[in-house]
UniProtKB/TrEMBL annotation:
Residues 1-12 have a biased composition (Low complexity). The keyword Membrane applies. Residues 1-22 are annotated as: Disordered. Pfam families: DUF4395. This is DUF4395 domain-containing protein. Signal peptide: none annotated. Residues 25-158 form the DUF4395 domain. The keyword Transmembrane helix applies. It comes from Nocardioides massiliensis. Keywords: Membrane, Transmembrane, Transmembrane helix. The chain crosses the membrane at residues 32-56, 62-85, 106-127, 133-156. InterPro entries: DUF4395 (IPR025508).
Amino acid sequence: MSARTTADFAATPAPPDLAGPASGIDPRGPRFAAVLTTTVLALALLLVPGPVGIALVAAQGAVFAVGTLLGVAATPYAVLFRAVVRPRLAPPVELEAPQPPRFAQSVGLVFVVVALVALLAGATLVGQVALGFALAAAFLNAAFDFCLGCEMYLLLARLRGARSGVAEGATP
């Protein structure tokens, strides 16, 4: 997530142990996951409508579904990050709220499901366009630390707060 997004949620100092979803997540984890997602979706886009491409789309959809239903800390990419990458890094300076990345996972899931249904129905171009949108969003996060789905979450939270009369600057 971008620095502005992290500041929108009250960041807390990171404990020395691995933080769970209740206390926040290491902000480097979703970016690591975005690198893997970008790789999977780019390969899928190159290989569809073949069976390997469709299998990659389905596998990425399963990762997004886990992130949406169980939270980003439960995804295979998060498990890999915690087991292999995070032990080699210094503790994070601050943790981020897990809700925006979880929402981003659900947005990714929608695009991947549209792509998968289209590809299975023979609408290759529609599937490729949906994959392209998901790939673009994952690439923005991986390359520029800009989580489009997280920004959407924050915008929707602000709109929801404005409609319910929440004061400016209050956390929704």
